[in-house]
Design brief:
By secondary structure, this protein is an all-alpha fold. Among the domains are: 183 residues, no CATH class; 84 residues, no CATH class. It is built from 16 helices and no strands. Helix 3 packs across helix 14, helix 4 runs antiparallel to helix 12 and helix 5 runs antiparallel to helix 14. The longest helix is centred in the first third of the chain and has 44 residues.
Length: 393
């Protein structure tokens, strides 16, 4: 029986806490990898959601600002256990990463450098590529059922490689999906695919950069720190590189709270530790204000995610029940998969740097597509192999 046709089960608060604590500990590789692991845990293994519901939540998540994988965790928690589940899933996914990053920050302040983690990452990254590929295949089987949805995904992929803004791609995909649905249902079936030609051109004239704050030389304080990261969490779309641009503009250039080196080290810690990349804010908060600063920055950057999910989450089932709104969501889902493929390509270029890493990725792919192996064991095994291989070199 197909996963989206199976009846969904319900997870308790304890089960939610355990799942997302585990994902917070093993969640290397960024949002695409996190989504893949959540798909494995909550769709394939526990059947808390159908794959169709999971895709709808993913599409809705991509349309709101903030850390996407964290918002997916919050969505799942809310769908399973209401408001308590929303808080439990979100906090449990963030907490391990926050504690790990705080420990890195403490070591950085005490010893003036970062612990050696390149060996672990060398083995983990190829494993993550295989896990994400499996999720792409599984999600694609659900989302891309028609030639029209395939065309939307292909167009979005091409535009992503051309550098079109992520939000514009998602909105464009939704508009194309809605228009195609309207044409097929209410006008003429053959006109649905014609609207793709309109989408192929319109995003290029709409690219715009986010406006940055105009304060200069601001004195450090916990409240300014909180409001800065609250602003970032409320308006930030895109990758960790966009986060870097925001922080560099204000924290380094305008206010002078950090040096360039400190900022780059903070971003590196956010990338190499498990869990949400936005815990870069935790590291910066610790550098500027100790443990209290770490807590303030973490709450500031993640708080908007809880708000946006709480507001948008109940609307997703209503959107799906409407034929036209469902067409919009189908288009967003297709564009989301295109962006996920694009991110996987970028991750692969960074992870598959030599023959051993490529062999590890291929071997892991064979395992995940052939056997039902928990992704946690694969990540752990990849990290251990990475340490062994780097120790011999």
């Amino acid at each position: 029986m197909d996963l989206q046709q199976r009846p969904a089960s319900k997870g308790s608060l304890k089960a939610l806490a355990l799942v997302f604590l585990k994902l917070g500990v093993i969640g290397f590789g960024g949002p695409a990898a996190h989504v893949a692991m959540m798909d494995d845990e909550v769709v394939r293994r526990r059947r808390w959601l159908s794959r169709e519901d999971f895709l709808d939540l993913l599409g809705a998540t991509n349309l709101i600002p903030g850390p996407n994988s964290t918002e997916m965790a919050i969505h799942v928690g809310h769908r399973q256990a209401g408001w308590p589940g929303l808080l439990v899933a979100g906090v449990c996914f963030i907490l391990p990463a926050g504690l790990i990053v705080t420990a890195f920050a403490w070591a950085y302040v005490r010893y003036g450098g970062l612990p050696e983690v390149t060996g672990v990452l060398y083995g983990v990254k190829p494993v993550i590529i295989a896990i994400v590929l499996q999720a792409l295949v599984n999600l694609g089987r659900t989302a891309l059922k028609t030639s029209f949805s395939w065309a939307v995904a292909a167009t979005a992929t091409a535009l992503a490689f051309l550098g079109v803004n992520e939000l514009l791609l998602l909105l464009g995909g939704g508009i194309v999906g809605l228009t195609g649905k309207w044409l097929r249902e209410y006008q003429h079936p053959k006109r649905g695919t014609a609207v793709l030609s309109v989408w192929a051109a319109w995003p290029f004239g709409l690219l715009a950069k986010s406006a940055a704050a105009t304060m200069s030389g601001a004195a450090f304080g916990l409240w300014p720190l909180f409001w800065f990261f609250l602003k970032v969490g409320s308006i930030l779309y895109g990758s960790g590189y966009v986060l870097l641009a925001f922080m560099r503009a204000d924290l380094v250039e305008r206010w002078g709270w950090l040096t360039e080196t400190q900022l780059l080290d903070a971003v590196a810690v956010g990338q190499v530790t498990p869990g949400p990349v936005f815990t870069t804010a935790t590291f910066i908060g610790y550098l500027l204000g100790g443990a209290t600063g770490a807590a303030v920055a973490t709450v500031g950057i993640f708080l908007p995610a809880f708000f946006f999910v709480a507001v948008s989450g109940p609307l997703v089932p209503r959107i799906r029940r409407s034929p036209l709104a469902g067409g919009f969501l189908d288009g967003v889902n297709a564009a989301s998969l295109a962006l996920m493929f694009f991110v996987t390509y970028q991750l692969g270029r960074a992870a598959l740097v030599d023959v051993p890493s490529t062999v590890l990725a291929v071997a892991t792919s064979l395992i995940v597509f052939r056997f039902a192996v928990n992704s946690a064991w694969l990540v752990l095994g990849g990290g251990l192999l990475g340490l062994l291989l780097s120790g011999r070199s």
